[in-house]
Design brief:
By secondary structure, the chain is mainly alpha-helical. It contains 8 helices and no strands. It starts with a helix and ends with a helix.
């Protein structure tokens, strides 16, 4: 019990860990709230609880948006350190990563403008800026999926040259599992990103709240699993 509490405290003390836990709680609340809120005619108490959970989820989402106001510099530092990916051995992985960094770097200021417009700090319409930021987020997710698929393909080639059961084999196999988790999480997020895009694009606007919560919960749990795997490494 004490070990679990210590682990949770360590996660909460880091910005990334706290954000992942808030994200999981946000989408988990939306999932449960979305399932309970339609039950007004059957159970009023469940309906009220569902509405409260949806409101709680919205507040957590707003909290994460505000916290991301301070992410630009760290993203810029990462993009600068990566540059054009000179250390990458594969050219396809390199350019996919560069394009992903560009999309991520542009995402933050666009989201900031949308947030500022909603807060009546700037005199522009927020809807357009939310759409732009969502498109950039979706682009980043699609590129991340392509990158993971390419990395898995390269790792699979390396795996064939390794002795089965050896340390290199185990390490490469584990990396392939991490990339598979990344694909799963990015696909779940991409489904939500498309839902939030302008109406008329694929299934935009068609997800009920519980399905948005389910997709977000899946991607959040994947992120927590990957973070835990990274700590173990």
């Amino acid at each position: 019990m004490q070990q679990s509490v210590d682990c949770l405290v360590r996660v909460l003390e880091s910005y990334r860990g706290r954000d992942k836990l808030i994200r999981t709680l946000c989408y988990g609340s939306q999932l449960v709230g979305g399932l309970l809120s339609p039950k007004a005619e059957v159970d009023a108490s469940s309906h009220n609880l569902g509405k409260s959970l949806l409101l709680f989820s919205a507040q957590l989402s707003h909290c994460r948006t505000v916290l991301r106001l301070f992410d630009d510099l760290s993203m810029l530092a990462y993009s600068y350190s990566y540059g054009f990916g000179a250390k990458e051995k594969d050219g396809i992985v390199r350019w996919i990563s560069v394009l992903t960094n560009v999309a991520d770097q542009l995402y933050y200021p666009c989201e900031h403008v949308a947030w500022a417009a909603d807060a009546h700090l700037v005199g522009v319409k927020s809807e357009r800026w939310w759409h732009i930021s969502t498109v950039l987020w979706g682009t980043s997710l699609l590129l991340a999926i392509l990158r993971s698929l390419r990395v898995r393909m390269l790792l699979k080639k390396e795996l064939r040259r390794c002795v089965k059961g050896g340390s290199s084999y185990v390490q490469i196999h584990r990396q392939m599992q991490v990339e598979l988790l990344s694909i799963l999480g990015s696909m779940a997020d991409l489904s939500n990103a498309i839902h939030w895009m302008p109406h008329g694009f694929l299934w935009a606007g068609r997800f009920p709240p519980w399905l948005v919560g389910l997709m977000g919960t899946i991607s959040s749990l994947v992120a927590l699993i990957k973070m835990n795997a990274g700590d173990c490494d």
